[in-house]
Amino acid sequence: MPETVWWKTGTVYQVYPRSFQDSGDDGVGDLAGITARLDYLAWLGVDAIWISPFYPSPMADFGYDVADYCGVDPLFGTLDDFDRLVAEAHRRRLKVILDFVPNHSSVLHPWFRESRADRENPKRDWYVWRDPGPDGGPPNNWLSNFGGPAWTRDEAGGQYYYHAFLPEQPDLNWRNPAVRAAMHDALRFWLERGVDGFRVDVIWHLIKDEGFRDNPENPGFAPHQPEINRFEQVYSCDRPEVLDIIAGMRAVLRDYGERVLIGEIYLPIERLVSYYGTNLDGADLPFNFQLIQTPWRADAVAALVEEYEAALPEGGWPNWVLGNHDQPRIAARVGPAQARIAAMLLLTLRGTPTLYYGDELGLGPVEIPPERTRDPWGRNEPGHGRDPERTPMQWDAGPQAGFSAGEPWLPLTPDWVCRNVEAMSDDPASILTLYRRLLGLRRDHGALSVGGYRTVALAPEHAEQVFAYERAHDGAVLRVVLNFGGTGQSLPLEAGWAGHVLLSTHPGRTGARERGQLRLAPDEGVVLRLDGPA
Ligand code: GLC
Known about the structure:
Elements: H1 6-9, E1 12-15, H2 31-36, H3 38-44, E2 48-51, H4 79-91, E3 95-100, H5 110-117, E4 129-130, E5 151-153, E6 160-162, H6 177-192, E7 197-200, H7 242-254, E8 260-263, H8 269-272, E9 285-286, H9 290-293, H10 298-311, E10 319-321, H11 330-334, H12 336-348, E11 352-356, H13 376-380, H14 421-425, H15 431-444, H16 446-449, E12 452-455, H17 460-463, E13 466-473, E14 476-483, E15 489-492, E16 497-504, E17 513-515, E18 517-520, E19 525-533
Parallel strand pairs: 1-2, 1-11, 2-3, 3-7, 7-8, 8-9, 10-11
Antiparallel strand pairs: 4-6, 5-6, 12-13, 13-14, 14-19, 15-18, 16-17, 16-19
The protein binds alpha-D-glucopyranose.
């Protein structure tokens, strides 16, 4: 049965607004900048943009600390700029997805100011307040995801408030119906303005253990890991009641037609899939970060895809992600040659792909000198900072790579003079061209956008280095064969079969006809149309 809903057939592109395009000269991107670059996104061939937060914020965590859920921070523009962005995106058939951050607000949000004012305030219970533990210290052993305790004592009331992230990001109490109602109103505010969906920040954190039990120690903890890993996050997040909360949000979206709810969830597959909800009343797309977390080896990735496909609930739509503003860039992790394999994988697996801005240019490692570290996590726990994956988009070889008329808030990649949209868009060998061709192929072939998935079994001598699978729809079969290694491989096709190379990561190969054997160069991937017995 063909699936035609846009968030199933389409491709999402994440824009980190600080870093996409500055329309002024303050070195920080803004909404008008995004609008000015919509033609590029339409040319590239994506279907939706997800914009990281642009709400009023003191920017302790670069906008993930929201001081007003229904506004635009002056740094990024105005509500008029936002309305223009949505209208211009829709004119180009691009959907707009917002980043909704309901787990915590900024300390400067009026709700929290009231909540901390005194213990009798009606907003007191909107946040998570607890008396000190028996020893007068924090109420339990929960840690902040950015290092240090997750509890901060408020001198005025003598109680502690909980913050899963910075002390500037107090967690809201989603057990309180008034909080739920206020957040639903914020969703409606943006839905009324025409947004097509939300990516919900740390959705698996929304409900905490009712008894605030201590988290158990993590026996696998190693000192190089972030401090949060000292304990298993058993009671501070992923509580069963969270599914009702998500169903409540999903119901708000349902009143507005085909809108999408994407949930940010870092959990193993068997827990992740529960976020589709009972009878699919939960997140439409619980973000699947497994490609980021699995070792980059053909056999490991093949096993992961099989496991994920098998774990999906009936009717649950899959999705895949290679990177985001919290994770090292794919090209920095696997190198430039394998970044092309990663692109082919992301855009040919079954399920909605989310691309991270700049990955289509293969943005790689960037050295951030300690004095230019901006990420609060990187400041608290050096080595874990997220600045390298947040550097400005590189548009051309002009000053500041066309990103800003001023000094960018983070440095460019060292190779920006040749690694930019202008230099790469007409180069048949560039990774940008490969991304664009893959997006075109996905549009042209139902087998890729809605077809079924099947792993192709390979002889043991190939399986360690090559991952092969088929996507089939309406009688058409496409075979994807990816060489994860640095040596050439020669694989037998079915006896007497021929195939036509629709696209190769190595441009010269596209269009070739293969008979009997498929030869792959080192680091080469191909999408092959199988023509059956020749
Ligand atoms: C999410 C965001 C991350 C942010 C954190 C706290 O993980 O993606 O950037 O720091 O939530 O809001």
